[in-house]
Amino acid sequence: xxxxxxxxxxxxxxxxxxxxxxxxxxxxxxxxxxxxxxxxxxxxxxxxxxxxxxxxxxxxxxxxxxxxxxxxxxxxxxxxxxxxxxxxxxxxxxxxxxxxxxxxxxxxxxxxxxxxxxxxxxxxxxxxxxxxxxxxxxxxxxxxxxxxxxxxxxxxxxxxxxxxxxxxxxxxxxxxxxxxxxxxxxxxxxxxxxxxxxxxxxxxxxxxxxxxxxxxxxxxxxxxxxxxxxxxxxxxxxxxxxxxxxxxxxxxxxxxxxxxxxxxxxxxxxxxxxxxxxxxxxxxxxxx
Length: 288
Known about the structure:
The protein is of the alpha/beta class. Helix content is 38%, strand content 17%. Helix 10 (248-257) crosses helix 11 (271-283).
């Protein structure tokens, strides 16, 4: 049995023609046309039948149909007003779906709350242009979200799950890793979409961390990472000194107190070190 009746080229083209629509490159629209991928997304997401799920960029409703079957309720955020009528048609049989016409990056999380509470899982084939920003924002501003299973560009998935010392490891990786950990991935080739994107894609599952870091610890580590990676090719001492407008000697004292050799580069440091560094920079008055 198909997971989604829309996950074929024929069905997708028929819906778009019926509504006189075409894909919009400006919105990063690539419609999923492989039902096997839908099934793998559902397996990786491990949605429970009582959960409220957030979807961003539902498009014509291809993944939405499967989510409505699997979840207790779904709240889907769609920016493209031309697709609202399409969604109303393709998902008409589901009473557990709420569609919001908005830019998800700007949306107040309180608008996502339903009678069954806020969403606890985030599952989406994301618009590529905003994927990285949106995933981090969800973990920053929506504490109810326990996991995210998202389709993104493969290179973005690489950044999200990168290890210290690799080219993909950067400030974004650190900021996301302060809040969530990778918990599964599979790659998706361009031929699974209409139209095919010019890049490879991947579905990545992230799970929220439950640890003893305070919000202040995370905020300071975030600021420390931004400053440390502001000039990636410089030593961490010089990069921090420049970004913070602080004397190199004061920065060096903070680095040594955090157990960091000042001559290292930021990409060599594990996430936990940025927590210590943020704390030390704050203690010495170099960070708020």
